[in-house]
Write a structure and sequence with these properties.
7 helices
Amino acid sequence: KYRITIFIMLLLLGGSSELFAQRGQRQQGRDGTNRQGTRVGQDMVDRPGMQQRRAMQDLKKLERLRMLKLLDLLNLDPDTEAKIIPRLRNHYKQMFMLMKEHQMKIDQLANGLKKNKFSDQEIINRIIEIDQIEKERQLKVGEFLRKAKNILTAEQLGKLYVFQARFGGEVLEKMRNFKKAQEQRRLHDGRN
């Protein structure tokens, strides 16, 4: 368990910690704006290409980490591993594409709202489009789990399901704890 935690920290500290720290520093106001007065999510639209590439690299690191941690958790034999890995990669690729499309639609909605260029009906239509993407994502997850049922044991399938639901939150929690520990060390070192 400690080995995985250390591995997570090493992978994520290569730059994605900046991304998580920046997101953690932003506070959303009642009107949907952050402290800088921009609409929440707008910074993703305005981000220069270099930062987008860094974010994509961080996502790839996170996906590699997800795969390594999942394989460690499932404790698969080589035959089962050979069957499930291509399916997992394909599933994650589909989820990533849907996530990108979802984010793009949200960004378009945010831009349109910011510039007051949508009618009420256009706003509703865009919300429906976003909702459809979310439904498609849920269908793909269900489809993947049904297919995985033919490869994994019931226990492994259960572990996979729980892992899928909790992985992102666990990484963020570990990052927060790590950041908090660093701040406490700095405070402690500053007093001595």
